Amino acid sequence: MTRHVLVLGGARSGKTAFAEQLAIRSGSRPAYLATAEALDSEMRDRVASHQAGRAGQFATIEEPMALSDALLKASAHHDVILVDCLTLWITNLLMANEDVARAVSQLGATLVQLKTAKVILVSNEVGLGIVPDNAMARTFRDLAGSAHQRLAEICDDAYFVVAGLPITLKGEAPGQAESRIHEA
């Protein structure tokens, strides 16, 4: 059975490293679906650093907006797809004046129908801090929170990563499925 996963955490919490470990343990043909757009030199450096850190371990697919379509295409060639990250995807949609709620619904429907590849979604939990001081930031926070709730409902496993330590919110603890396989 394919178990989709949602990994949440704050900035620099270790959520991506945790998701990468899950992906590597979960499949033999992993893909890394990146939603970031390198629009300035700082972001280009970040992207290059991320790519260098996972060199040779993942096929890289870059898609800033059409996430559902990219997942369906990638599932034809990959048994696990790590999406990093949903909050950048939501930002990209907002900046393009796209309907974020509709895109999240489409992503949810894609996950429900996708049985050939495990999808691991990484996202920043942005709702734990102060209330933002402007309308756009509040809209972003609200859309991200709604997306996380909807996707956590669909995903079989959900984790919150703090200081590099994953906390199981829903489903199997990290490594639980692998230990059952080794015991058999």
Automatic annotation (TrEMBL):
<dbReference type="Pfam" id="PF02283">
    <property type="entry name" value="CobU"/>
</dbReference>
<comment type="pathway">
    <text>Cofactor biosynthesis; adenosylcobalamin biosynthesis; adenosylcobalamin from cob(II)yrinate a,c-diamide: step 5/7.</text>
</comment>
<keyword id="KW-0548">Nucleotidyltransferase</keyword>
<keyword id="KW-0169">Cobalamin biosynthesis</keyword>
<dbReference type="GO" id="GO:0009236">
    <property type="term" value="P:cobalamin biosynthetic process"/>
</dbReference>
<dbReference type="GO" id="GO:0043752">
    <property type="term" value="F:adenosylcobinamide kinase activity"/>
</dbReference>
<dbReference type="InterPro" id="IPR027417">
    <property type="entry name" value="P-loop_NTPase"/>
</dbReference>
<keyword id="KW-0547">Nucleotide-binding</keyword>
<dbReference type="InterPro" id="IPR003203">
    <property type="entry name" value="CobU/CobP"/>
</dbReference>
<keyword id="KW-0067">ATP-binding</keyword>
<feature type="binding site">
    <location>
        <begin position="34"/>
        <end position="36"/>
    </location>
    <ligand>
        <name>GTP</name>
    </ligand>
</feature>
<feature type="binding site">
    <location>
        <position position="62"/>
    </location>
    <ligand>
        <name>GTP</name>
    </ligand>
</feature>
<dbReference type="GO" id="GO:0005524">
    <property type="term" value="F:ATP binding"/>
</dbReference>
<keyword id="KW-0342">GTP-binding</keyword>
<feature type="binding site">
    <location>
        <position position="84"/>
    </location>
    <ligand>
        <name>GTP</name>
    </ligand>
</feature>
<comment type="similarity">
    <text>Belongs to the CobU/CobP family.</text>
</comment>
<comment type="function">
    <text>Catalyzes ATP-dependent phosphorylation of adenosylcobinamide and addition of GMP to adenosylcobinamide phosphate.</text>
</comment>
<dbReference type="GO" id="GO:0005525">
    <property type="term" value="F:GTP binding"/>
</dbReference>
<comment type="pathway">
    <text>Cofactor biosynthesis; adenosylcobalamin biosynthesis; adenosylcobalamin from cob(II)yrinate a,c-diamide: step 6/7.</text>
</comment>
<feature type="active site" description="GMP-histidine intermediate">
    <location>
        <position position="50"/>
    </location>
</feature>
<keyword id="KW-0808">Transferase</keyword>
<dbReference type="GO" id="GO:0008820">
    <property type="term" value="F:cobinamide phosphate guanylyltransferase activity"/>
</dbReference>
<protein>
    <recommendedName>
        <fullName>Bifunctional adenosylcobalamin biosynthesis protein</fullName>
        <ecNumber>2.7.1.156</ecNumber>
        <ecNumber>2.7.7.62</ecNumber>
    </recommendedName>
</protein>
<keyword id="KW-0418">Kinase</keyword>
